[in-house]
Amino acid sequence: MVLLQLDPFLNELTSMFERSTEAGSVWVTLKRSSLKSKVVRNKMATAGEAIEYRCLIRATNGKKTISTSVGPKDHQRFQASYATILKAHMTSLKKRERKDKKKSSESDKREGTSKRPKKS
Amino acid sequence: MVYITSWDEFVERSVQLFRADPDSTRYVMKYRHCDGKLVLKVTDNRECLKFKTDQAQEAKKMEKLNNIFFTLMARGPEVDLSEVTGKEQTDVQPTKRGRGRKQ
């Protein structure tokens, strides 16, 4: 498990997405963590110190795992970059063709796009 | 595995789950480009909520949910969420950098 700084993590995440376009998945996990063991946490709680929590982010492609931890100061910047990466790579999802819900009687998740091919 | 069909229900229940137990709740996202599928999972190791989609518009909604979780996790579960827009309401730790560097 590789723990990286913010920017190298984002770079690695980008290349992970690029490498898994033909086959494979990318998993990204978000969890809150203080990165300290329970013993240390209890001690801090009894001593009256505030425990600083960070957001732990892990990404894997099944073979390799990378991770980083984001504090409240960096989270907005990370969030913006992360959103950009996702938007750039999630291109294989279907675009919604029909806007009003009356015509598409079934839910949007149907895969029947061949009925009205607009992109032919 | 519970697959939720309504996006709003998924969001509401996952935030509730997180607020109830912030230390063990995690949010997982799996994306498969070859299949064009996106699956989201929120679990606290007791209960599990999942959501799957192949729609691009749901990906946009997911981005908002990502923002919500980032804010919740980095700042704390008592943060007042105003659905992404007003994130500077929390006065726990006023970020000095955040003001001028918004892109």
TrEMBL record, chain A:
Q: Which Gene3D superfamilies match?
A: Signal recognition particle alu RNA binding heterodimer, srp9/1
Compositionally biased spans, kind Basic residues: 92-102
Q: Which Pfam families would you find in this protein's record?
A: SRP14
Cite the SUPFAM superfamilies for this sequence: Signal recognition particle alu RNA binding heterodimer, SRP9/14 (SSF54762)
Q: What is its main location?
A: cytoplasm
Where is region (Disordered) located? 89-120
Q: Where in the cell is it found?
A: Cytoplasm
Which key words are in the record? Cytoplasm, Ribonucleoprotein, RNA-binding, Signal recognition particle
Q: Bias regions of kind Basic and acidic residues — which residues?
A: 103-114
The record ties this protein, via InterPro entries, to: Signal_recog_particle_SRP14, Signal_recog_particle_SRP9/14
Function field: Component of the signal recognition particle (SRP) complex, a ribonucleoprotein complex that mediates the cotranslational targeting of secretory and membrane proteins to the endoplasmic reticulum (ER). SRP9 together with SRP14 and the Alu portion of the SRP RNA, constitutes the elongation arrest domain of SRP. The complex of SRP9 and SRP14 is required for SRP RNA binding.
Regarding protein family, the annotation reads: Belongs to the SRP14 family.
Quaternary structure annotation from Swiss-Prot or TrEMBL: Heterodimer with SRP9; binds RNA as heterodimer. Component of a signal recognition particle (SRP) complex that consists of a 7SL RNA molecule of 300 nucleotides and six protein subunits: SRP72, SRP68, SRP54, SRP19, SRP14 and SRP9.
**Protein known as:** Signal recognition particle 14 kDa protein
Native species of this protein? Stylosanthes scabra
Lineage per the UniProt record: Eukaryota, Viridiplantae, Streptophyta, Embryophyta, Tracheophyta
Protein encoded by which gene = SRP14_1
TrEMBL record, chain B:
What's in the keyword line of the UniProt record?
A: Cytoplasm, Ribonucleoprotein, RNA-binding, Signal recognition particle
Name all SRP9 domain ranges. 5-66
- Which coarse location class applies to the principal site listed for this UniProt protein? cytoplasm
Annotated region Disordered: where?
Answer: 81-103
Which InterPro entries does the UniProt record give?
A: Signal_recog_particle_SRP9/14, SRP9, SRP9-like, SRP9_dom
Cell location? Cytoplasm
Q: Which domain of life is it from?
A: Eukaryota
Q: Which SUPFAM superfamilies match?
A: Signal recognition particle alu RNA binding heterodimer, SRP9/14
Which family does the record claim for this protein?
Belongs to the SRP9 family.
| PANTHER family, sorted | SIGNAL RECOGNITION PARTICLE 9 KDA PROTEIN (PTHR12834:SF12)
Q: What does this protein do?
A: Component of the signal recognition particle (SRP) complex, a ribonucleoprotein complex that mediates the cotranslational targeting of secretory and membrane proteins to the endoplasmic reticulum (ER). SRP9 together with SRP14 and the Alu portion of the SRP RNA, constitutes the elongation arrest domain of SRP. The complex of SRP9 and SRP14 is required for SRP RNA binding.
Q: What is this protein called?
A: Signal recognition particle 9 kDa protein
